[in-house]
Amino acid sequence: MESRLIDLEIKVAFQEDLIETLNLAVARQQQQLDLLQEQFRALYHQMRANAGAATAAESNPQHEIPPHY
């Protein structure tokens, strides 16, 4: 009976260690996701700003291709 109790205590100790390891991995992945979302937002805003500037430049007659091309 005592050996079964010791086995169960050992299993619980390993499970607690595994849960802590998994918790740290999930926390690290969440930090990476947060960073990637922040970078994505920055790129999105940069692309929108560049698209607005490109649209303004395209409407400028100086940037039009001459008819003979």
Structural description of this entry:
Helices cover 83% and strands 0% of the residues. By secondary structure, the protein is mainly alpha-helical. The protein has one domain (2-55). The longest helix has 57 residues, at 2-58. The radius of gyration is 29 Å and the shape is rod-shaped. Pfam families: SlyX. This is SlyX protein. InterPro entries: SlyX (IPR007236).
What layout of secondary structure does this protein have?
Layout: H1 2-58
Organism: Cupriavidus plantarum
Protein name: SlyX protein
Describe this structure in a few short sentences:
By secondary structure, the chain is mostly helical.
Quickly give the structural class: mainly alpha
Estimated helix fraction: over 70%
Kindly state the number of beta strands.
0
Question: Average pLDDT value?
Answer: 89
Show unreliable segments.
none
- N-C termini distance: 93 Å
Q: Which of globular, elongated, flat, extended, rod-shaped describes the shape? A: rod-shaped
Largest beta-sheet characterization: none
What gyration radius follows from the Cα positions, in whole Å? 29 Å
**Tally of individual helices:** 1
Question: What's the structural domain tally?
Answer: 1
| % residues in beta strands | under 5%
Q: Strand-and-helix sequence, N→C? A: H
Name some characteristics of this structure.
SlyX protein; rod-shaped; 83% helix; 1 helix; SlyX
